[in-house]
Amino acid sequence: MLNTKLVLSLVLLLCFPLIFLLAQRILPSKLDKILLPDELDDLALFRKATLASIERKEAEDHYHSQYGSILSFLSKDSTPPPKIAFLFLTNSNIHFAPLWEKFFQNKSTLYNIYIHADPTVKIKNPGGVFKGRFIAAKGTERGSPTLIAATRRLLAAALLDDPLNMFFALISQHCIPVHSFDYMYHSLFYKPISGSTRFRPANSNRFPYKSFIEILSGEPGMHERYLSRGENVMLPEVPFDQFRVGSQFFVLTREHALLVINDRRLWRKFRLPCLDKYACYAEEHYFPTLLSMEDPKWCTQYTLTRVDWRNSSDGHPHTYRPPEVSPELIRNLRKSNTSSSYFFARKFSPDCLKPLLHIAQSAIFRE
Fold first, then answer.
1. Residue ranges per domain, the chain?
2. 310: Cβ–Cβ under 8 A, 6 or more apart, which residues?
3. Which UniProt keywords apply (predicted)?
4. pTM, entire model
5. At 190, is the pLDDT very low, low, confident or very high (cuts 50, 70, 90)?
6. Which long-range contacts (CB under 8 A, 24 or more apart) does 98-102 make?
7. In the prediction, which pLDDT does 72 show?
8. CATH topology of domain 33-364
């Protein structure tokens, strides 16, 4: 009898890890569903941002009728310059705040910062250029639509806050810049992109630049990702041949930021809870699919954030450690097989801050 009880106890003990893993895969999380009060809050924010942008568009059209092109807009000293909105999506401290401080130094008229910090986690306010830049946030969880909702919230907050925000760069607390701010700004606003024009056509009112967002099809595991919410759940709005994947980090134009916050049709599908967490990375599916379906010609199809997936673990990319930090690493992280160099790189461990600061002026911000 004693031996039987001992065997049963050992079996139960060995089963606990398996039960835990299965529960994670099968049982829904408390953050899997977007709650109605949260959805209504977001819709109110989106409406405000859209109305503010309509008013801004009318003013811009008047300016266009006077001066003719975005380069005229950029070149007139009396006119406020367009800005880049940096959107930090985080669930931990912004460990590289001192490095970003050096990156933003003396450029306050050319950028804005917005931070969505998970309120369920205690996060330290880094101060400096980040002070007062936290927006009203809600809980987030990996493998759930909450990350889409948080990103849409960031875009809406930036659209509403400043009509001069023209590009919207989504980054994480693990991202670092690999170029100077001047290089990034001039690359976005002055460098021509293949397939687009630096001048606004006479019969067009749109901002004449493309969004930098990775849009991929035919990748391994696409079918499993498509079915991660259940069989035929995505139909009819999202047929499999129009489903796309890509990096969750992007740089969107103002037009595309508005397109995202005004979307209701695809959001109704992507907001559904994931049944298979190991195949469902909602934020890597929603944005590429939406923009591919709605406005593919104005997307570069690639990201400006470098990530090394060669040594990935549990869905996380390679994490750089202090011994790897060097000027040579920065030069390699910039390299791209597209027409644009990478602007950002991830994923770096917090203890990389000191060696990164050591090479900041000599390697990162020196072109």
1. 33-364
2. 318
3. Glycoprotein, Glycosyltransferase, Membrane, Transferase
4. 0.86
5. confident
6. 98/353, 98/357, 99/176, 99/177, 99/353, 99/356, 99/357, 99/360, 99/364, 100/129, 100/130, 100/177, 101/128, 101/129, 102/357, 102/360, 102/361, 102/365
7. 56
8. Spore Coat Polysaccharide Biosynthesis Protein SpsA; Chain A (3.90.550)
